[in-house]
Amino acid sequence: MKKTDFEQLMLKYEFAKETLLTELDILIKEYEFNNDRNPVDHVKSRIKTKESAIGKLQRRGYEVNLDNISKHIHDMVGARIICPFISDVYEIVKIIKNSKLFKIQGEDNYIANPKESGYSSYHLNILVPIHLNNTVDYIEAEIQIRTMAMDFWASLDHKMRYKYKKDIPESIKDQIHNVSVDVKKLDDKMDKINDIINENYR
């Protein structure tokens, strides 16, 4: 893998990330202007490192080359949008889908259908246009939208699984899953309280 070729690919990912964040910022500010409220607590972003990309290809049995990074790693560019309430998550999903800049490639609603581990989030896979060398190229990116409670659970779950080098015992997996159920109940309660406040006190 030539360094210069990889650097050019990473430059495309960097442009895609900046374009993605700019468009998200515009969409969120426009929503806030029209609705007098901001449905987002904060936004995080990242580009996978070369080492992470190579490791992912190897785990999936692909040859390590630039073409396979482009074809088989769909989240080299990633953004995570953290919202206060579940209803905010769906509002953000809606405004992203209505963006004239992005092309929606796919979606996974892990809030309605959590993963076996208990993981909950809403994923959108999109194409982001970038302009390079007088051409327009479309770069894949993944957007994860979740509540603060979901993000709290996912972050701790990741840290615990990363620390545990062996297979996690089923009893521990069950406890982690049970906490995710509690998080879902908390999110639902807070959403209902928020609805009451919006209906009666605004």
Write the layout of secondary structure elements.
Elements: H1 3-35, E1 42-47, H2 50-59, H3 66-72, E2 77-83, H4 86-97, E3 103-109, E4 122-132, E5 135-147, H5 148-163, H6 170-200
Helix pairs in contact: 5-6
Summary tags:
Beta Polymerase, domain 2, flat, single chain, 2 domains, 202 residues, five-stranded mixed sheet, 6 helices
Could you explain how this protein is built, in words?
There is one protein chain. By secondary structure, this protein is of the alpha+beta class. It folds into two domains: 146 residues, 2-Layer Sandwich (Beta Polymerase, domain 2); 48 residues. It contains six helices and five strands, in the order αβααβαβββαα. Strands 1-2-5-4-3 form a five-stranded mixed sheet. The longest helix is centred in the N-terminal third of the chain and has 33 residues. It is flat and about 60 Å long. The protein starts with a helix and ends with a helix. The mean pLDDT is 91.
